[in-house]
Specification:
The protein is an alpha/beta fold. 35% of the residues lie in helices and 19% in strands. The chain has a single domain (3-9, 15-121, 150-176, 201-334), classed as Protocatechuate 4,5-dioxygenase, Chain B (3-Layer(aba) Sandwich), CATH 3.40.830.10. Strand 11 and strand 12 (321-330) form a beta hairpin. It starts with a strand and ends in a 5-residue tail after the last strand.
Length: 335
Amino acid sequence: MARIVLGAGTSHSPLLTLPAQEWVNRSAADLVNPHLNLSDGRFVSYAQLQAEVGDRYADEASAAQLEAKAAACQAALDRLADDIEQADPDVVVIVGDDQQELFSADNQPAVAVYFGDEVVTSDRFGAEELPDWVRDMGRGYLMDEVHRLPGARALALEVIESLIEQDIDVAVCGVVSDPHKAAFGHAYGFIAKRLLRGRKRPILPILLNTYYPPNVPGPARCFAIGRALRHALEASPLDLRIAVIASGGLSHFVVDEALDRSVLDALQRGDEAWLKAIPRAALNSGSSEILNWVLVAGAIGRLPFAWSDYQPIYRTPAGTGVGAAVAVWRSADEA
């Protein structure tokens, strides 16, 4: 029987693929972003944000602070990669959000399961004319060229059938026909590159629409999908060790440290009610990726919470950036 031996969540910010001295490129984007999301549901420009909060995070955005947080993030990612290696999963289920890499407005399912033999990545960030930092980010996301990673077709087909039987009407896809036009993106490539350390473990992608209304599932629905996913995985007769990983989050593009810490505390407590009641207003834009973590919380079942790390990365004086987090659940015999 299949068994979930490890659960995890990790941010996948471009900052985690770049040295701290290159983070200024993302800071510059914040300054001209007219839709910085706040947790009360509003979208503001940087000037509007600065008018509200001033430059209260100027010290946090110093070069020395950013270097220290970069080192802390990489140490947490190394620890997570070690845990995955120790758990030695036969299949890695990655719950991520597609950002117009594989899907688009032409076809945007609320939740989809990929059952192909190969998980094929996009080469969107590999063009020679792109800035060096973008190409470096592309390498960190396996989006510098077309990469072909092993899929988990047999398990994926079982999961699809089980989810349908459990009244989760998932979309499905089983082939990437032209990776130069549409293919898997950063949510999946980051896990394969940074955390699987290049080892080609079979991947089962779950694609959750967190970014694009009107069909974004709410947190209660995401938790329910996660619970159904757990049932589907554990019902498989295949003799498999499975890791389930949420890719993305936490708050961004304006850091909400209180929200992030509350999410991590609820995950540690196993507080299903709190997770299911996260306000929808707090789950817009990049912060919507918290929904991937909620789904995984539903999927990991009774796995005990092992550890977490959190770094609020304020990359501008007004507090834009990302709440960079890692969390791990694992069975007692994997500790």
